[in-house]
Amino acid sequence: MTTMKKIFNFSVLALLFMSVLSCSSDDDITIVESDSAPVLISPEDGSSIVLSPDLSDNPALTLVWDHSVYTVDTEIDYTIEMAVAETDFASPTIAGTTTTHVYSLNVEELNTVASNLELTPFESSAVEVRIVSSLGDNGDLAMISNVITINITPYTTESPKLWIPGGYQPTSGYGPDAFTHSTAPTLSAVAYGDVDFEGYMYIANDITNPDNGFKFSSQANWDGTNYGQGTADGELSSDGGAANLVADAGYYLVKVNTDALTYSLTPAEWGVVGYATTGNDDGWNNSTPMTYNIDNKVWETTITLSDGEFKFRANNAWDINLGAGGSENNLSYGGDNITATAGTYKITLDLSNPRNYTYTIELQ
């Protein structure tokens, strides 16, 4: 009987000890709760910002907000979200993250955000801004601030392009598939807003059936404006149902004006011309023909040159000629003569990048 009492007493003591430990563990648990969300206080709602590439490093936008409040003193993560106005932040862009209550973007950074939001360059667009606070790597206990609207006028330094998808592509070195924008040649304007486009294209075989023809597309897909045959030769229609354009086989200088709805295809067979090609002034009278390489999309020739100068010209005439441009191996219309030293060279002329024409000269 005495033994049973001892066992009972030990059991009671063990239970009491475990109870004390359990209570002690519960007392050590800290529960973190969100209390109040961040409040955006600057800039003023409705502020307007016009961005310029000339001021890319200048401050453009500084956001200031009151801290979020949680029930413990801990580091808070803040995420700056921006979205096109009236989209309910369905596809926001993250402009930055911080652990402070101030965040600044310079002109270039804010313009990048605008580009990510697909805002139209040089037009004012309304953008909504909010701050999201959270704790830890998993973004726990997120709280969202009030929303303010700012009006952003972004810029672009890219020149607009036109794509030339068509049935001629597989046989002309522009990818295995017809009517494919991603492998089609392109035209380029000088700057955003300009309507005069230029570039070069090669057509291996005569296009006699419009079903195998081509169009000029304002986007790298069929979702933009697609220009087809107008009411007369050289005229375009922006009606998506317009017939495809046709042309004879050849290499062409292509020009398009999207305001006037006109286009031209000028045959351009290239050659090298100049004193260096003959060793005397007769070299300026006749071009040495070059051959088009369909795989590399360049004109090329292997030629023995004398000390002297040369240029590139089309159709053995001076209407279209290219000389030295503003940087090494760059070319411009009517540019300076290019100096050569005596030797045998492989010369290539690359016109595949519209308005950025280049050449190479490699001693053999």
TrEMBL record:
The record's listing under InterPro entries reads: SusE (IPR025970)
Q: Which keywords does UniProt give here? A: Signal
- CDD domains for this protein: CBM_SusE-F_like (cd12956), CBM_SusE-F_like_u1 (cd12967)
* Alphabetical list of Pfam families matching this protein: SusE (PF14292)
- The SusE outer membrane protein domain extends over 26-131
The signal peptide stretch is 1-24
- Recorded superkingdom: Bacteria
Protein name per its UniProtKB record = SusF/SusE family outer membrane protein
